[in-house]
Every structure is written in structure tokens, then in C-alpha cells.
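quick one
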Amino acid sequence: MAAKIVVLPESLSSKIAAGEVVERPASILKELLENALDAGATDITVELEKGGRGSVKVIDNGEGIESAEAPLAFERFATSKIYQFDDIYKVRSYGFRGEALPSIGAISRVEMVTRKASSLSGARVIVEAGELKSIADTGCPVGTSVLVNHIFDPVPVRKKFLKTEATEQGYCMDVITRTALSHSEVRIRVVAHGREILNIPATEDISERISLVLGTDFIDHMLPVKGVKGGMTVHGFASKPDFTRSSAKQLYYFVNKRFIRDYLLNHAVMTAYRRLIEAKKYPAAVLFIDLPPGDVDVNVHPAKMEVRFRNPREIYDIIVETLVHALADITPASSGEKGRTMPEGYGERVQEALKRYTVSSGSGKLFFNKTLTDYPKPRLAFGQIRENEASRGPAKEIRAEQEIPGRVQNFADLEYIGQFTGTYLLFSSSDGLILIDQHAAHERILFDRLKMEAARPGEKMMSQRLLIPEVASLSPGEFAVIVESMKVLEAMGIEVAPFGENTVIVKSVPAILSHVEPKKLFLEILEELSNAERTLGLEERQEKLFALLACKGAVKANQKLSEAEVMRLCRDLDATRFSSTCPHGRPVYISFSLRDIERMFKRI
Ligand code: ADP
Ligand code: MG
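structure w/ adenosine-5'-diphosphate:
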């Protein structure tokens, strides 16, 4: 092909440029909302048709645009927010690139109506596919309304990438949620398809806003957090460890009020919660990070969803320290008064996190001017994880199996009260109330048995031959993993053999897991083996697998147990060497002494 370099005509280049800013209706909405906020609006109405695929309209009561300047807003790089390059490191406004309106105008039809308070009449500007179609005087309220429709008509192929109305509306609502969280002072109303679906009044404080936007359930599980370091501040709310999510979607970060996604910040948050929440779970948080505009470059991403920090390490530190500090304040003793008890071992793990973090950040001292000893030592009922255990890595934590002084010795002797929410078994003892997590308990029993059987010298684990062997066809990579692990598996009572190209046959499973669907079990094992770090020793790998098998084989939550089954569980629990936590480190049981209960009821 004879390629020649040509300069693209403006009509074409603007459409290409628009692609960077306008991905979908939600991106249009984001730009319009930011313009409204930059104009100082305190009241914003959003109207969506067909989830934004039909049209997006934003009406604000901001300062408006001078009639004569209104068409200029659609010129590329026309902005009222900066005048020279360096200004972008000082701006506090969302916009400054002067790109949004021309980009939106290039791929749709835009009708803007705007008036300044000082003008008697306003202007109506219509732009279609990048061309100014009309401009006229009009009577209108002070502020600006921008209606965008015929979205992607000039670039029909982009339409194909749009999702269903419901999905697109979901994206729009995400944008609205973020805006509402960062601007409590602004009233926000959303009308979809002619029906009002959201109406959030201006609120004075952020917690009220959060409960209006994310629900009261959400805010009920949140702790206020606050930290200051140098010119930076962090404030907001973060979830208590008992409120976890299965994705990082509810981690909201606002840097100078701008919503951003950031790997570093996610990592910092996860570090603070490490060992306080289960693996593969995420906390929720709404964090506002404020720093001098010069310390953050927002001009690195077309939609400004990512930023670059000048001192990433400092941001990281302030986030971890702030969260760890807030989490340390909920000790079992203080939360018990509110009728809640944090999982046993919780307080110590927090202490450990504080220690670990202070040491690793090299400051030696927390910036809150508190030393570690200032934090109240948590009072734990019994069976807590021992001091040094808290510092072990997750793989080793499974080994915690020594006798714990003060543990309940005889579960079988306790008086069974009943099952609560199909998940917890309630018992009364001579001096209190005991709750057993049936899944965690059973998991612990199975784990112990698997380990004991594996430890018997010279004897193979009891396995159950499958009547009909399972055949699994795998990817070449998975096949290699299984072949490599055949010995480990065999020692665990799982007999696997190669069976043609990239195919294996599963012949037996551990006898105590014969009630679990073998294929499912095998696939879980495969996943665990594929994810396991190659550096793990044989024993550690086996322990991880035992933990997995125990989890799969154990009774689930929300499963009704007969009294006979409960008794059996108690006897089995009595026979285990360590019954205080499940193999993942979650508590098997929690107890409230009579004194605890009486104190909660303020009897003593
Ligand atoms: P930027 O926001 O980067 O400056 P835009 O293309 O989004 O660029 O907007 C261009 C200009 O139009 C803005 O600088 C502002 O002066 C004006 N403008 C756009 N929307 C509004 C609005 N809702 N209220 C007041 N002025 C607006
Ligand atoms: Mg803008």
C-alpha cells in the first residue's frame, strides 16, 4: 500500500479525539456534571432517556456563560479555567483542557441553553456533529442546561459498543453516585424516562450524604477515619472488618474531590485490613484525600480517572496509618458495649498491624503522637490467637494447633439451645453463652482429621474409590500442574492419572469427603494448585489443600442441623486438638460470659 502522510481534516480528527473522552453516555454525563460543579452549581438535575443511550441532559444553577461566549465553549481547547500551562498544577476545577464540549459535540447533537445572572436574556446554541447549527437569544433561568442526544450518530460503529439500556444507566448512576459523594453541598435529582429515581437534598455532613447515597446499612458499618500528614489530609469512612465485599467496587477515593481509580491506594487499603478480613474479600471505604494541587498531576488520563502523585509513598503511608489507627480503636472491649464482639484475636491482629506498619514505614512512631502502648490492650474472652502467631504469614497460620489455655474443653457437655439463622449453634454453659459457627467448626474437624491421617507413618490416607471415575479435560498448563502434583494428591487420597492428551482421570477422593461432588472438588483443587506459589514447600502446599478440602467438605452456613448432628459435631470438636479457629483463622466459637451480658444490659 502506498501510504502517504496526510494531516487529517478537522472534522475527522475531532471525532478521533472525541473517542478518548467520550466512551459512552456515562462519560458525557461525567463531563457535564463536572462543568456544572465548576460553574458553582448547588442544584443539579440529570435527565436520562433510554439509560443515556437516547439522551443525557444536565441542568444546573451555576454561573452560566455570557451569550457572546457560548459558541466558544464548543471550540477545541477553549476553556475559562486556565490561561497558561503551569496553571494546570494549580487548578482546583475539574476541567481545564477545553476538550469536553467539542468532543461531545463532534459525536452527537448538543443543545445548550445558558444565562448569567447579570444578563437579561440567555443564549441557545445548537451543535450537530461538530458543526455550529444555530445560536439565538432566549429567555431562560440563570444557569446552564445541556441536552445531548443523537449520541454517536456521526460514528455509528461506536454505537455497537454500547451495552443495554440498563447497563448504560448503571454506568450513569455510578457517575452520579461518585458526584453525590464528593459534593454533599449540592442537591442532585435524577429523572430517568420521565420518572424521578433519585432526589438527594444538600446535606451538611458527609456521613448523612453517604447514607443517602449508599444506604444506611452501609454507613452503619463504617468507622470515621481521619489523618493529617504534612500538607495532606485523609478523611472519610472505612468499613469495620465485619462488613466485607467481594469486589473492590465500594472503595471510593477522591483526590481533591476528584474520583479516581488507583492501584496504589487499593493496595494501601488492603494492607491496612490484612489479616482482619478474609482472603479474597474487600473492605468498603469512602476516602477523601486532599493535597496541594501541585502534588498531583491530573493531566495524565483523558477522562482524568487516573492521576500521578508526586510523592506516592507518602500517600500510601498516610492511608495505611490512618486506617490502621481507626481500626485499632474498635477493640472487643469497646465494641462489646454496643452489643457486638469482634472476632477473637482481632485486637491483637490490629496491634500487630500497627507494629508492623510503624516499623515498615520507618517512622518508628505513629504520626498521631500516640505510641503503641497508648492503645488499649483488648480484652479477649479466651482462645485467642497467640501473640507471635499474629505475625505469621497466611500459609503458616494454618499450623496453629497448640492447646489454648482457657478454651472450652467439652462442647458435648454444653446445653444446646438451638440454631440461629441456620448458621450458628447456641449453647449455654455454666457461666455464659456460647455461639459456634457450624461451618468453621466442621471445617476445623475435617482439617484436623485430614492432617492426622496424613501424618500416620507408612499408611495411606483412607480414600474412596469412585464407582465411575471422573474424566477432566484440561488446558496444557493445568495438565502440567496436575501431573506435577500427582504425588502430593495421592498422599491425600486423591488418585489421579493421565488419560490421553491434556486429559486426566480422577479415580478416588478422600473417604471423609465422599459426600462432595468429585468433579467440583477436583476443579477446586486444580485452581488452588494453579494459584499456589511455586516456592511453597510440599508440606505447606499440602496444608493449603487440606484447608481447601475441609472447607468444601464442611457443612455450609444456612443448613439446618438435627440435634443429633449438633451433638456429633460437638463430640468431634472435643476430639480435635485445636478448636478455637478454623483453618483460615476465623473463630470457631465466640462466648459471652454472664458478666459480659449483664454489663451490656447495665445490670452491673
Ligand atoms: P473545560 O471544562 O475543560 O474548560 P469544556 O469543554 O468542558 O472545557 O467547557 C468549556 C468551557 O465552557 C468551560 O471552560 C466553561 O467556561 C464553559 N462551560 C461549560 N459548561 C458550563 C456550565 N455548565 N456552566 C458554565 N460554564 C460552562
Ligand atoms: Mg469540562
